[in-house]
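Worked Example 4.2. Consider the chain below.
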Amino acid sequence: MNQQNKKISAQGILALKEALSVIFWKKEQLKDFVKLTLNNSSIVNYIDWSGSKRESVKELLERMTNRLDIYRDDLMNLILAVTDFNDYSHLEFWDEDGSKRKKAKLAVEKLRTQTKGYIQITKEKDDARKRKLEVEKRIAKSKSLDDELIALKNRFIEISMMTNLQKRGFELEPFLNDLFLLYDLDPKGSFKNYGEQIDGAFTFDNTDYLMEAKWKRQVDRSDLASFTYKVETKLRIAMGLMVTIDGLTPQAIAPEFKSIIIMDGVDIMAVLEGRVKLPDLLYRKRRKANETGKIYVNYFELIG
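Applying the procedure from the previous section yields the following structure tokens:
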């Protein structure tokens, strides 16, 4: 019996639905995975991604199973791509107790069990290898981000070696602008606002941020107080990001600084080395500040 005449079991579809819902924590990653896996990837644009992952996956699979004349091969593409799934390192940053990775592995293993009648046939194994190669080619095209991060890292190292501290500070602002632009955070360069010097601004998660960058010394309480005042006196700006490459003095933090979060050189290098994506780091920092009141927790403390 060839693939065209087979009917994918209801249990297999349910197992695929569960696996797709849990193998990625960020909805954007799931969306990219599906788009890269499907030949008829235009269907992704017709799915409502504004709700939960499960709702989006349910809509996707319902559309595909209702039109098997169009999407039969792509449904198999999804099954094969998910059953080939064996790297869960992308969940580690969000998985403090290991439960998310465990749930994802169990869901994939259940899908393998429910669909083994398909993927064990020689012809389909050959097709799976071909599809996997095609997906890998598409993914490779999307890896230009890694190359740009390497270039930015080299640039950051060059800036750090400058002996002229004033020039080093000037170079930091356009560097940060380019880094935030790489992650589509809509950065804006420095500007003056009613006599105030603002180093930059960006938009993240539907929130506007003012940004201040310092690389001369450790930031002290007066620096944070001044920046907090700039943030809290703006009508439309809800948050602020202080980037201080050399960190803070031990006495800098005060309980009244509630509208800002802080990044340091450790955070910058973690992003440049690909340990964490900038939007994910900002999300974790903001969540930590909301949960604990700690506005300065660097990357290694966040994952520790």
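Residues 1-5 have pLDDT under 50 and may be disordered. The chain has two domains: 3-141, 145-303. Compare this with Example 4.1 before moving on.
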